[in-house]
Write a structure and sequence with these properties.
The structure is a single chain. With 453 residues, the chain is of the alpha/beta class. α13 links the parallel β13 and β14. The model has no long low-confidence stretch (mean pLDDT 92). Bound molecules: zinc ion.
Length: 453
């Protein structure tokens, strides 16, 4: 071994990617390549980095991202590039921005906005649209510089809208001519450098106007045709996300597509609450087709998928409640105004399956910026209104924590709320140093109102 290297990273915890136990050691690099790895390397680096306390690994490869927009205006693929990822794959789940005819730009933006919650104003301002075809999109990216490497996939939604226009958006069946066109464009895309082709068959993916993705119900003929386009190119992977609600039909179909095309398939596998063991069936199937010599892999996220929830976003915790759905089409300011109605608020909470409603009236509860909780001094009218919402729902408990600094005012108020709403109330009782007997007074009051029914 040379006694000198360009760079030595000393004493880091080395996880070399082989799957073995991590170990403390040194890594020597020369000419941009690893020259030696081991404990206490007897080599001097022209530059040395103290790796103690750090993990030293090869760069990670992230095989599922949606940077299709960001790469057109950013040089850094953050946050991915800040996480130790050195190669990322984008264009997953059939969504992206190429190919695209000028009249369809807004459509593809709404798709990405709905599926990935990338805001329309950001995409509209950022996308340069200096492409129509997928190869032109790659050319546009190739002219730019990036902090990490990436690979792009041809997204089915964009391809379908490009080939079929409004019929594609409306999820009409592709004609043989449509399929032939998509197959040719898919072949051209991978020949120009696309890593492969991606599609989505999940009802969780919707455009921001609420419509399902164009590819949700694409027929086997269409998927096979496109896969055969990749076969002609002699390269390219297939990537798919699905609800897998009908695995008896869908898995055999996927098998036929892989058999016909000879192209490798990668599918996203999650755990579904309503079918908690389905992932086992899918992984069993993956093992089975692998035994039969077919290249199928499952993409299993290292962490659960995170969702952005908010009234101004495409998803929020109340989106499936009937009372919220009635407001869902209002513009954000009008919707927020309507939601200020305490009764409606309570109804939505009850519909969401909440156990009840809780509030705080203690100065011990503060936001991290030091401000009191917004509910500290909520008026009796507000609390009564919310409690009456639970009354309408016919269920739900009230829970309250308070400093109880003004018992003669607060306890009668709570009594009136319970009397008016008929909902059970649960209060937190502590012992306060500055009022060591207050808990007795409160428990006496609890006993009294319980006696009163
Ligand atoms: Zn995705």
């Amino acid at each position: 071994m040379a006694q000198e290297a360009d760079l030595v990273i000393r004493g880091g915890l080395i996880a070399d990617g082989s799957g073995g136990e991590p170990f403390i050691g040194d890594v020597a690099l020369t000419g941009g390549k690893i020259a030696a790895v081991g404990p206490n390397l007897a080599v001097r680096g022209r530059e040395e980095i103290d790796g103690a306390g750090h993990v030293v690994t090869p760069g990670f490869v992230d095989i599922h991202t949606h940077y299709d927009g960001q790469v057109t205006w950013e040089h850094r693929l953050r946050p991915t590039s800040s996480h130790g990822v050195t190669t990322t794959v984008m264009g997953n789940c059939g969504i992206g921005f190429a190919p695209c005819k000028p009249q369809d730009r807004q459509r593809l933006i709404r798709l990405m906005e709905g599926v990935e919650d990338l805001p329309e104003p950001v995409l509209a301002a950022g996308l340069p649209w200096n492409w129509t075809s997928f190869p032109e999109y790659l050319d546009s990216l190739a002219a730019r510089q990036y902090d990490i490497d990436f690979a792009a996939q041809l997204p089915h939604s964009a391809l379908r809208v490009y080939a079929m226009g409004e019929r594609g958006v409306e999820r009409e069946a592709a004609t043989p001519d449509d399929v032939a066109l998509m197959a040719r464009l898919a072949r051209e895309a991978v020949e120009a450098g696309a890593l492969g082709f991606s599609t989505s068959r999940t009802i969780n993916h919707r455009a921001s106007d609420g419509r399902h993705v164009p590819t949700l119900t694409a027929a086997e003929e269409e998927l096979t045709g496109i896969a055969l386009g990749l076969k002609k190119a002699g390269k390219g992977v297939l990537q798919l996300v699905s609800d897998f609600d009908d695995i008896a039909t869908e898995l055999p179909m996927l098998r036929r597509i892989v058999e016909a095309s000879g192209r490798p398939l990668s599918i996203a596998v999650a755990q579904w609450n309503h079918a908690p063991n389905r992932w086992r069936d899918i992984l069993d199937w993956v093992a089975e087709v692998n035994r039969d010599g077919l290249a199928v892999a499952a993409q299993v996220p290292g962490r659960p998928i995170g969702l952005l929830l908010g009234f101004e976003l495409s998803m929020n915790p109340f989106m499936y409640c009937a009372s919220y759905k009635a407001l869902a089409n209002l513009a954000v300011p009008e919707r927020l105004a309507a939601l200020r109605n305490p009764e409606l608020k309570a109804r939505i909470i009850a519909e969401a399956g909440a156990l009840g409603f809780s509030t705080s009236r203690t100065i011990n509860h503060r936001a991290s910026d030091g401000r009191h909780v917004p509910t500290l001094t909520a008026a009796e009218e507000e609390l009564t209104g919310i409690a009456l919402g639970l009354t309408r729902a016919g269920k739900g408990v009230l829970q309250l924590v308070s400093d109880f600094e003004d018992l003669p005012t607060e306890l009668p108020m709570l009594r009136r709320i319970v009397e008016t709403s008929g909902r059970p109330l649960s209060i937190a009782v502590g012992q306060w140093h500055h009022a060591p007997d207050r808990w007795r007074t409160i428990l006496d009051w609890v006993a009294e109102v319980n006696r009163g029914g």
